[in-house]
Amino acid sequence: MKKLLLWAPRVLxxxxxxxxxxxxxxxxxxxxxxxELVGGFLIHSIPAFILAAIVAIAWKRPIIGAxxxxxxxxxxxxWMIIVAIQNDHPFGQALNWTWPLAGPAFLxxxxxxxxxxxxxxxxxxxxxx
Length: 129
Fold this sequence. Notes:
It is a single chain. The protein contains five helices and no strands. By secondary structure, it is mostly helical. The longest helix has 38 residues, at 91-128. The radius of gyration is 18 Å and the shape is globular.
């Protein structure tokens, strides 16, 4: 169980980041110059780069992963609600749009948190011994 709590958030964080990065590839379907395509790809990849940085920093500090993914998840949900309201879509529809990405990201939050709790318990056990 300890290894699962150690590796699950890291592996799922990497997979989720790669999944997000995949959406950046749609830029290459456009009719544009090479440098415009590269620029578009880099701009569309910014969220994935941020999550990759969070995963890298959280490798040794899982609480950073929990907080970082929670902030990213919250930002995404709020942003989608604002966009939906601006485009006269119902609030409920905006929430329905968010769950396919926000749900797995929240799972990563929970796993990073559980990993942090487990690491704290192991640290306290070592200090008591």
